[in-house]
Every structure is written in structure tokens, then in C-alpha cells.
Design goal:
Helices cover 56% and strands 17% of the residues. By secondary structure, it is an alpha+beta fold. The protein has 2 domains: 177 residues, no CATH class; 170 residues, no CATH class. Strands 2-3-8-5-7-6 form a 6-stranded mixed barrel. Helix 2 crosses helix 11, helix 9 runs parallel beside helix 12 and helix 11 runs antiparallel to helix 12. The longest helix is centred in the C-terminal third of the chain and has 44 residues. The chain starts with a helix and ends with a helix. The model has no long low-confidence stretch (mean pLDDT 82).
Length: 402
């Protein structure tokens, strides 16, 4: 009880010196604010990575046209990726369960009655639904019969459906896709963001034969998707895939590959890289603010010791022990840093809400930020409060009362 009363005396002094208390807590408040935002961005980034890997497929590898860069999208001007390459992958690479091909065309005009939009067209084979785990929520999926008959049918992504039909059902209606009139066979399930962060639902899919011959007039594909039987063999499959494609495309060093291989690990690295710089800057700000705040706290408390010598001497003269004085000043330091922690956490949460609402940064509020804020506040208050507390406790009553 005596310790609590001593600590309470220290906090009452802070209440009577509000401006001084504010300056002592300002550095801690800024540091905790930055720390809270850092953790929120980190958690949000991890969730975005998990979502993008899920959309990409955790057991999938993508072979895309065009060399030089490490990530999608495919270079549609490169025409060296062919259907026989997909067949060779099926025959020669072990550990691959499914192989599906896609030809693409960007920014194709879609029209229905008075509505118009621009979207990407994917021309796909019959195994595309299974390879991408992408079902239809309305109507029917594409079939091998659609491929064989060059059927002029398509499936709409949810964004395209909204742009052209609003809330009405598009199934059974005809839309104009470029120069091709297509029957809408169904609507794809909502997918969200692609691995590169764009809208995965702003596209339509049609049979590969229809797209290549009737719409795109091309004999090459733009990407080949491999679904593995065991994701643990991904590195070996990637290595075998590169070797096979270099052999088939007659590429020898130092020639540059005319293809790229994209895996979930590469997608994760890209997503982490997008927030790494900001996290480093905020971490540096948090550390600097906490150190500066601690130094300011220590110096103001040292000044406070000099200003309060008579109070300290009087307390010692009427029986207060050195330990009581030490606890009082430590309590003041901890009270300041803990109050700074509370205000910094609240400010950090407000910033997180603003970032989540008005910026594309991924943020997630986490209990870990509160726990770390408490830990850092206690560390700063204890570490930088010890020296002033020891100085106050070391004053001799007679000298202090002079």
C-alpha cells in the first residue's frame, strides 16, 4: 500500500505540471504511433500476400510469354509460346497434374444494347476451370464440345457483368466482343485482385479455339499454367520447365529467355517488397522517436529533481526512505510513458482507419501492436527514468533543505 501511495504522489505531481508532462510523453507518443502503424501494415501485407497466393494458386506455376522481367503480365507481342509447348510439358515434366493454356487480348470493347465497357479476353481450354479452381455461379462452364465446335460463347467476370447488365442476369443474352457476337453462357465466381493487384473480375473467358481463330487471329498462346501434384516439388519443376523451354525454343547462353516462370514465392516477394520501404522508414521513425522521447523524459526529470530538492529533503526528513523517493520518480516516468503509449496507440488506430479508407495500403488492426506498445513504454520509462530517480533518491536531507 505504501508503494502505491508513493507512486500516486508522483502522478499527482504530473497532474499539476501538465505542460512538462506533455513534453515528456510526446516522443513516446510519436514512437508508439509509428509502431502501431508499422504492425498494421505488416499484418495487412501478410493477409494480402495470402490472398494473392490463393488467387494465383499455392500449387501452381505460370509460364508466360516474354523475357527480361520476373513478373506478369505476359508480353503479348511475343509469339514464341505455342500449343505444342504445353503438350511437351504434359509429356516430359514429372509432378504436373494439369496443364492449361490461355491466349489473351487486352482492352477489348464489350457492348450490350446501350452499355459498353473495356475488358480483357482470356481464350482458354476445357481444363481451365479446374486448373484455376474458378467455377461459375450462374449458367454453365466451358466444355470440350465448345472447344471442338469453335462455339461463340463466353463467361463474364463479375465486373463485366455489372458494367453491362447491372443486377440483371446475363445468361442467355448476346453481347458484342470486339467483332464477335457471343452468347453469354454464364457468370464466373468473384475472384478479387490478381497477383499484380488489378481486377481479376474485369475479364471474360471463351473457348481457346474460338478466341484464337475468330477473335485474335493468332496461332500462339500467352501463358501456360501448371498445377502440381505436390507443391513441395515446385523448385524442381521450375528448373525442369526452364530447361525444357530453352531446349524447345533453341535458347543458349548468353541469349535471354523469351519466357518467364512465375511461382507463388515470386508473388509473395513482390507483395512484400511493395510495403518494405515504408515499413523501414516507419520503423526508423519509431525507434528515433522512442529514443528521443526517452532522452527528453530523462532530462526533464533531472531538471525536476533540482526544482524539487526542498520537497525531497522534507520527505526524507519526516521518514521517507531512499526507496520511496526512487519509486516516486520511477512512477512518474512510467506514468508519462504509459500515458504516451495510450495516446500514441489511439492516434495510430486513427491513422490506420484513414489509411484503410483512403489509400491502397493494406492495414489490419492487431492486438500485437497494443502488447508491443505496452512493452516499449515500460522499457523506455524504466530505462530513462532510472537515472533521475537515483539522483533524487541519493539527495541527503540536510543538503536538500538548504
Amino acid at each position: 500500500m505504501k508503494l502505491l501511495r508513493t507512486a500516486w504522489d508522483g502522478m499527482r505531481f504530473l497532474g499539476s505540471n501538465k505542460l512538462r508532462a506533455f513534453f515528456m510523453m510526446a516522443g513516446t507518443m510519436v514512437g508508439i504511433t509509428a509502431l502501431t502503424v508499422i504492425i498494421a501494415i505488416g499484418k495487412g501485407t501478410e493477409e494480402r500476400i495470402a490472398q494473392r497466393i490463393q488467387n494465383f494458386g499455392p500449387n501452381a506455376i505460370m509460364l508466360i510469354s516474354g523475357g527480361g522481367r520476373d513478373m506478369p503480365p505476359p508480353d503479348l507481342s511475343v509469339t514464341t509460346l505455342k500449343l505444342p509447348d504445353a503438350e511437351a510439358i504434359r509429356q516430359e515434366i514429372a509432378g504436373v497434374r494439369l496443364v492449361t493454356t490461355t491466349a489473351m487480348k487486352r482492352q477489348v470493347t464489350m457492348q450490350y444494347q446501350g452499355s459498353e465497357t473495356m475488358a480483357m479476353v482470356w481464350a482458354v481450354d476445357a481444363e481451365w476451370h479446374e486448373a484455376w479452381s474458378w467455377d461459375v455461379v450462374e449458367g454453365e462452364p466451358l466444355t470440350a464440345e465448345d472447344m471442338g465446335s469453335l462455339a461463340k460463347v463466353c463467361l463474364l467476370g463479375n465486373t463485366v457483368r455489372k458494367e453491362l447488365f447491372g443486377s440483371a442476369s446475363p445468361t442467355g443474352e448476346y453481347i458484342q466482343v470486339g467483332n464477335l457476337r457471343c452468347l453469354v453462357k454464364g457468370v464466373l465466381a468473384t475472384r478479387g485482385a490478381s497477383p499484380m493487384g488489378d481486377d481479376f473480375d474485369n475479364r471474360i473467358v471463351m473457348p481457346l479455339t474460338t478466341g484464337m481463330r475468330r477473335l485474335m487471329n493468332q496461332d500462339h498462346v500467352n501463358q501456360i499454367r501448371l498445377v502440381l501434384t505436390d507443391p513441395g516439388n515446385m523448385s524442381a519443376v521450375v528448373s525442369s520447365l526452364r530447361s525444357l523451354m530453352r531446349q524447345r525454343h533453341h535458347i543458349t547462353p548468353p541469349e535471354e529467355d523469351d519466357f518467364r516462370v512465375v511461382s507463388p514465392l515470386a508473388i509473395a516477394d513482390l507483395a512484400r517488397g511493395s510495403s518494405r520501404t515504408l515499413s523501414i522508414l516507419l520503423m526508423a521513425l519509431a525507434a528515433l522517436s522512442l529514443v528521443v522521447g526517452g532522452v527528453i523524459l530523462m532530462n526533464i526529470l533531472l531538471i525536476s529533481v533540482d526544482d524539487r530538492k526542498r520537497e525531497i529533503g522534507l520527505r526524507r526528513a519526516i521518514g521517507a526512505r531512499r526507496r520511496d523517493i526512487l519509486v516516486q520518480f520511477l512512477a512518474e516516468a512510467l506514468a508519462v510513458t504509459l500515458l504516451g503509449m495510450v495516446l500514441g496507440t489511439l492516434l495510430g488506430l486513427a491513422i490506420i482507419l484513414v489509411l484503410g479508407r483512403f489509400t491502397p495500403l493494406p492495414v489490419v488492426i492487431s492486438w500485437e501492436s497494443v502488447l508491443l506498445a505496452v512493452v516499449f513504454a515500460l522499457l523506455v520509462g524504466t530505462f530513462f527514468g532510472v537515472q533521475p530517480a537515483r539522483k533524487a533518491a541519493g539527495l541527503k536531507p540536510v543538503e536538500a533543505l538548504r
